[in-house]
Design brief:
Length: about 190
């Protein structure tokens, strides 16, 4: 018989209650705790969403793409995402990658998952890889559930440590070299 040892920890009772209704929104983002407060602020204050399912894993959307590190990791996370799309009745998916603003510090804001997948590569090369991964994940989501709406953002850490959430265009064919191009950024307040 299993013995549960006594604990000094007290029971904590929340004021927030379990919601019976599912939010039907999924946020796919990196586990990195350094930008979570900024992410929460963006989701609540800019997108206006308070309740959402979370698929937080190292690399965020990049976790859904197989790499030289592991083929099976990508496949496994793809299966989990498909499960959530179906089982949780998701109607809207928000994909978020993160890193530093290109060409500036702080370089430590680079995503650790992309650092391990492509060590020695520049911030620009990582951004390109993230854009390719986003394209693949967007295609995956749409092919599995064509009615789902997609929003894609890059969380970019500036030199003053504030985080700017840059919308990444979703093109009709779900391929986009646009994010990171001079044309795309020309109209943005940097
Ligand atoms: Zn990360």
């Amino acid at each position: 018989m299993t013995h549960i040892p006594p604990t000094e920890e007290k029971v904590f009772m929340t004021s927030a209650k379990w919601r019976q209704e599912r939010p039907h929104i999924l946020v796919v983002a990196c586990s990195d705790g350094r930008y979570q407060e900024a992410l929460d602020e963006f989701l609540l204050n800019h997108l206006g969403i308070e309740d959402y399912d979370r698929l937080y894993a190292p690399g965020g959307p990049g976790a859904l793409v197989s790499s030289a590190i592991s083929h099976f990791r990508g496949v496994q996370f793809q299966d989990e995402a498909k499960f959530l799309l179906d089982a949780h009745g998701l109607e809207r998916v928000i994909l978020i990658v993160h890193g530093p603003v290109e060409g500036s510090r702080p370089s430590e804001a680079r995503c650790a998952d992309y650092l391990r997948k492509m060590p020695g590569n520049s911030v620009g090369e990582m951004r390109l890889r993230q854009a390719e991964d986003l394209s693949r994940v967007a295609t995956l989501m749409k092919s599995h559930k064509p009615t789902v709406s997609l929003q894609i953002f890059a969380a970019e850490v500036r030199e003053d440590r504030r985080v700017q959430f840059v919308p990444v265009p979703v093109l009709s064919d779900y391929t986009f070299p646009l994010w990171g191009s001079a044309d795309f950024f020309s109209g943005l307040d940097r």
